[in-house]
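2024-03-11 09:14:02 INFO receiving multi-entity request
2024-03-11 09:14:02 INFO entity count = two
2024-03-11 09:14:03 INFO echoing inputs for audit
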Amino acid sequence: MIRTALFASAAIAALASVPASADEGMWTLDAFPAERMRADYGWAPDQAWLDKVRGGAVRLTGGCSASFVSPQGLILTNHHCIATCLADNSSEAKDYLNDGFVSSRREDELKCPGQQAEVVTAITDVTSRIKGAMGSLTGEALTKARDAEIAAIEKAGCTDLKTTRCQVVTLFGGGQYKLYTYRKYSDVRLAWAPEDRAATFGGDPDNFNFPRYSMDASFLRAYEDGKPVASPQFLKWNPRPPVKGEATFVVGNPGSTSRLWTGSQLAFEREVRLPVTLATLSELRGRVIRAMQESPTKEREGLDTLNGIENSLKVFIGRTKALNDPAFTGKLSAAEADLRAKSAGNAAIGDPWTTVDGAMSAYRSLYLPLRFTQPSSDLLGYAQTLVFAAQEREKDNSERLPGYTDSRLPLLEKQILDERPIHPWLDKLTLEWSLSKAREYLGADDPDTKLLLGKASPEGLTESLVNGTKLADPAVRKALWDGGMKAIKASEDPMIVYALRLADRQRELRKLTDAQYSGPLAIAGSQLSDARFAAYGDTLYPDATFTLRISYGKVAGWTERGNEVPYETTMGGTFDRATGNAPYDAAGGFVAAKAKIDPNATYNFVTTNDIIGGNSGSPVIDRAGTVIGAAFDGNIHSLGGNYGYDGTLNRTVVVSTDAVQEALEKIYPAPALVKELSGKK
Amino acid sequence: MIRTALFASAAIAALASVPASADEGMWTLDAFPAERMRADYGWAPDQAWLDKVRGGAVRLTGGCSASFVSPQGLILTNHHCIATCLADNSSEAKDYLNDGFVSSRREDELKCPGQQAEVVTAITDVTSRIKGAMGSLTGEALTKARDAEIAAIEKAGCTDLKTTRCQVVTLFGGGQYKLYTYRKYSDVRLAWAPEDRAATFGGDPDNFNFPRYSMDASFLRAYEDGKPVASPQFLKWNPRPPVKGEATFVVGNPGSTSRLWTGSQLAFEREVRLPVTLATLSELRGRVIRAMQESPTKEREGLDTLNGIENSLKVFIGRTKALNDPAFTGKLSAAEADLRAKSAGNAAIGDPWTTVDGAMSAYRSLYLPLRFTQPSSDLLGYAQTLVFAAQEREKDNSERLPGYTDSRLPLLEKQILDERPIHPWLDKLTLEWSLSKAREYLGADDPDTKLLLGKASPEGLTESLVNGTKLADPAVRKALWDGGMKAIKASEDPMIVYALRLADRQRELRKLTDAQYSGPLAIAGSQLSDARFAAYGDTLYPDATFTLRISYGKVAGWTERGNEVPYETTMGGTFDRATGNAPYDAAGGFVAAKAKIDPNATYNFVTTNDIIGGNSGSPVIDRAGTVIGAAFDGNIHSLGGNYGYDGTLNRTVVVSTDAVQEALEKIYPAPALVKELSGKK
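2024-03-11 09:21:47 INFO inference complete, emitting structure
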């Protein structure tokens, strides 16, 4: 599943991008390489086409992409993008995640906690303002000046915080800064979802593989004031099979890429971050797998978390493989050497590589404390956000940490206050795990370990914190949010007390990181961006930043060790692959509807589009601008796509509209949606 | 804990060794570098001293080292070396692992299943015979000829299989072959062990660290015909504190090192084996941790397994760190470059590096199938051994696989037939885990996955195999062992049927490995050994092979980031470090005896001796030849010791006889042992 990786460190900023090869590129919609595409495909979209597509493209704050597919706020995305919503709405009485959700009445559609849908309405270049504010500052002074200017721009850009959101985005690692303005919809509800097994047929073993047989699709609906919103700029639903070789566009929000990290950034990744991540996340996986076997309730409550862990782990294992493949890393080194050679003697560029080396050297010392002084727990996460928000809101907007400025607070508040279930056993499991890993990696005698644990054991501390806190109750969180520092200081809730105990050290580490790592990288990133534009002109796309991009490509299989992998699978193939045993047990709805399902309908297909985690749910659009599928995965080769794209092997995996239409009509019937999608009144 | 790493692949033969730096070296007792030591220490042992020590040194087939410390068969080793014996003897009624074991009467001493004690009685050079048999053969023909000659030498060397064992050992990766003859004692019983928490105080967080406060000591006794054996060649027990700077010798059986692997072997390790191992073993760790929380019984039954997993994982994490440290690997590359330069133009040596590169390239394709077609389960392990033993015993001794020749069968039979408890939940856990990892790493559509699983799920197959088998019953195993192929073929036991289903493929992979990997490495290993002796003369020691070695060094702390780490801890320090919470909760016996314990008695201490997993339990001997401690661990720096020794940082961690004497007298009183150790009648 192309969802954003858990625990992927947002602190590592992508630096810059490389000259793109055929079909490579996650392009911003204001810089589509039309000439380049026309040269390869004999056709390319014009600005009107691009503008229309932009108006229908949706970002989901849960970390996915989507699109409006009707004028009544209906949104197409992946099943795995709304699995958490299904889990949050489930109970002993009704297991929506297992059973799926079909509603014949809009008033029954299910609210999705924490979820918000956003559509880009304007993109404004603010590079000169930001760079002007940074001036010749360095270190923490630089990051403070930059962040204050960003806060001011965002605040001024969006005065109506109820329906708009403003976000300044760093592109090319600091080469460009752009203000993205969004129309936002903070009430998002679930309209249709298949059974979990229909979406996850093949489970973890088939994830990031192809051939696939996955109904990884679902429909949401945006609401406002309790009513479905009008969405006149929707994309037309086109339930047809793909044609081999036809051009396809993926329009969505790739989360992050690291396509032109310098050598020392890649070395840090390979030598430090990935090994720690593989070991610790694998242990968490084992703990959750075993815990889920303890009862049917835990199996239900843990499933969404386990899926997320296994998906992330597969991503990290794929990255480890890529960075341990000398042929792959050789290409990355060659690209760096080429840029260095082309930049030699250009005094304006200087030597950003040495700056990055220094930043990474500092980051190696900061990394473990940074990582392990933020234990994993939803309840502690609430506490930490409440504490930081209260502390930051006492400051002027220009003085706050970036996550707590006026423009950021509305979504934060929504995420804190939305009601969603907390499973204490699961929260204990993750907290106990992360505290024990902190002690293991920092060492029992480390001051940070002592700060985290005192004389307690990870197990004992976890018991007292999770059993003692009341933060699972949204009303308690609201009181603390509204009450600000006074309420926080007066609180005897053990999670709040614990979050306060950690806060000073977390701030100290943040300051050190700004001074020694983020500050230098902002300067080097800008220089590297200049170097790249000087060397390669405007054939460049910025590294992914979970903002709207378009990639072009075509429907095509690939050659795997001499064997052709066909570009599509069929609905009938599900039954051939089914063994009757999980995760290869056909979903009940499929079995029941077998006689009715068209066995030859295209189920999943692959394209050469260049995507990455965050693109999940992106509409796959044909030349006519109609939707023929939803991207939900990459093949196994695409996992190295974080660092570089290989058009001969990397593939996007799509669930076809043809298959979704079959499901809507015959497997999980939703006649109202079928009618709505058809455009008939 | 310096115990041999779980899942460490014995298939990767160490190739050769480097010229030793100060205190470096795991020397064979027939090639002690007396001159070198004398130059540094002003004294060195003579052959009589070495012979005496050899007579008292014991190898434990469980993977540890030890020593006779009385003339009545009393053996000193580590607690962690006999923890499995304690666990195997425990039940709901009596938890020996938790409580420890003290017996006032020899007849109550506890039998240790599968354990055998061995003392070297002769070492004979058989290099010319083996190399003669290999002649100019290559590939599988070479390994067959070599293994047949080894089988013949071992069979002829030991006619009395009840009390002797013969083993041909490959040294210098194929440069030398030596026949080791052992006096063996196959009835080993436990005489004394402290509480688990006394031995494991600080648990996994403190493992491979120092300062330490660990009573990682225990006593076994060798029996024959139901009576303690006479062991006139014992080492004298000397309960005294170590003196800073004094010379120390560690005499034991280091398991394996890889000190001069070529670059392509190290690359395979870093790029393939370690990442797979970190991820899979961490997941197993998580599963076991969580399962142990399900009940006190599971906590007891799983503890020894968890300790083993965590210890191995720490070793692998340490190796990952070492191989990801450019300064460290730079030294290894420089050593290789030096040897290549010194060997250039020597036609007799040829180009073994290219041969190794080819072998490693082949091994990369074979590694995952080899690893994952041998699922982890004690019960399946019994079945696989029974199947292979029956098949192999139908062949002539010279035709058998190395593990099943006449000289190897007695220990194998003992390990199969000894009664020991099997915990079905734990066996299911490991089997389910390893089958699911096989599917993950080989892929769901791989023929080996289909062989392993058919249409079943890992969970379903595991249930039917473990619930259906009767192999937990030693009588059932004995009937199958005695019944040979006829009994195996007639068996309807699902584990036997399953083992038979896997056997052909396992043999096929073995043949491919012999042909493409082991055969070429045997030739290259011999050439590399010749190159090394030509370049560096006889200043070399062979890589570790779990055979008897001696290392010399001294009592010394080290400097850690500018701070001096003292060379010793004291008994009283335990109480300062105790927090009351696991694993820093002082053992009950310590708390009860606190007033009596001498707080200034040396507890643990560190030396510069060069050791590795397998050395656990080795006697630490002073110049007088008396025992002043038992080696039980290395510090964190020693984990890179698999690839290279750094005398400024690598340390051996020892539990002092001074502390053990305190325990024997005051904490877990054993007056009979105190008397026996004192030599008084």
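2024-03-11 09:21:48 INFO post-check: Residues 7-18 of chain B have pLDDT under 50 and may be disordered.
2024-03-11 09:21:48 INFO post-check: The two ends of chain B are 35 Å apart (CA to CA).
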